[in-house]
Design a protein that fits this description.
By secondary structure, the chain is α/β, with parallel strands linked by helices. The chain folds into two domains: 122 residues, Rossmann fold, CATH 3.40.50.720; 162 residues, 2-Layer Sandwich (Dihydrodipicolinate Reductase, domain 2), CATH 3.30.360. The protein has an eight-stranded mixed beta sheet, covered by helices on one side. The longest helix is centred in the C-terminal third of the chain and has 18 residues. The termini are far apart. 48% of the residues are buried.
Length: 328
């Protein structure tokens, strides 16, 4: 498997960044593109040198020589698009959020396991070198016992009822679009919280999706995770890990940061040092390279983003939505 031939379903903004970064991955090739518009698919395919373009998602499964499909359609179509591929024996990297709810996520995971086909949620931040390094340092005890994780993600988007972000029918709102980042970081460090230990609050737009969402997860042994998402303000987009012996700070924008600062307590002072981890491109190349490694190793799921983690994340997002009263 020297060359991994990628299919892309949904050639939108994220798919374009992903395809840009595939150029940085040795052995990666954009092989096919599927859209509801054949003209759009052909334009995207022409730009990235893909030999196949389709005007229907369903046609992707009949593409010759395809190794894996990246699903980058709107949230509400992820389950349908992924199942189409999985039931035809085609591996899938599915953009986050994996599904609209945990019931859909379980269907996708069940299909992958039944058909023995690779499936992974595209939690690209897990593979960013600075994020990976921070998690490694936490595991090594670099700041002692970790008791608090804090992160945010916010940008200013003027209200537009026609925008995907504000469209309830397309799974709009801050939580599923960007609140998932603080949530996944909390779960990577502390695991899945019990439902009764999840506190959440939100404000809503005229289209009944969350404009801003804040949540806290409480864990045993005095551990807390705090997250915030909003499309109504430009926020720092930073992450902090606080421990008994120091702190780790992921610089903005933390979910694809190129720098972290590690500090150790000496009395009431902090001794800090920076770690720079620059990279080329948007940051999707690391995720793609990991998936390609999994395929070459004939793995059915990732060891860094296993399917059970994805199910835990989907169930946690369900709990938050229940707490804030967001129903799709």
């Amino acid at each position: 498997m020297d060359t991994i031939r990628w299919g892309i379903i949904g050639p939108g903004k994220i798919a374009r960044k992903f395809a840009d970064d595939l150029r940085l991955v040795p052995g990666a090739q954009v092989h096919a593109v599927a859209s509801t518009s054949l003209e759009r698919a052909q334009a995207f395919a022409g730009e990235y040198g893909a030999p196949h373009a389709f005007g229907r998602y369903e046609d992707m499964v009949h593409c010759p020589g395809l190794d894996i499909v990246y699903v980058a359609t709107p949230h509400v179509l992820h389950t349908e698009n992924a199942l189409l591929c999985l039931e035809n024996g085609i591996p899938v990297l599915c953009e986050k959020p994996f599904a609209m709810n945990s019931a859909e996520a379980r269907r996708m995971v069940a299909a992958a396991r039944k058909n023995r086909v690779f499936l992974m949620e595209a939690l690209w931040s897990r593979f960013i070198p600075a994020v990976d390094k921070a998690l490694q340092l936490l595991e090594e005890g670099a700041i002692g016992h970790v008791h608090t994780v804090k992160s945010d993600f916010g940008f200013m988007l003027p209200f537009d009822q026609h925008s995907r972000i504000f469209d309830k029918a397309l799974g709009g709102g801050s939580l599923l679009d960007i609140g998932i980042y603080p949530a996944l970081l909390s779960l990577f460090v502390f695991g899945k919280p019990d439902a009764e230990d999840v506190l959440a609050a939100a404000t809503f737009t005229r289209t009944e999706v969350d404009e801003s969402c804040a949540f806290t997860f409480r864990y045993p042994n005095n551990k807390l995770a705090i997250g915030h998402s909003t499309v109504a303000a430009i926020t720092p987009v930073e992450a902090w890990f606080h421990g008994t012996e120091g702190n780790i700070y992921l610089h903005p924008r933390w979910h694809h940061s190129q720098k972290l600062t590690v500090s150790r307590y000496e009395g009431r002072q902090e001794i800090k040092h920076d770690i720079d981890l620059p990279y080329e491109g948007w940051g999707y190349s690391f995720e793609a390279a990991h998936v390609m490694h999994c395929l070459r190793e004939q793995r059915l799921e990732s060891d860094l983003v296993p399917l059970d983690f994805t199910l835990d994340l989907a169930e946690t997002l369900d709990v938050i939505r229940e707490k804030i009263g967001l129903v799709y």
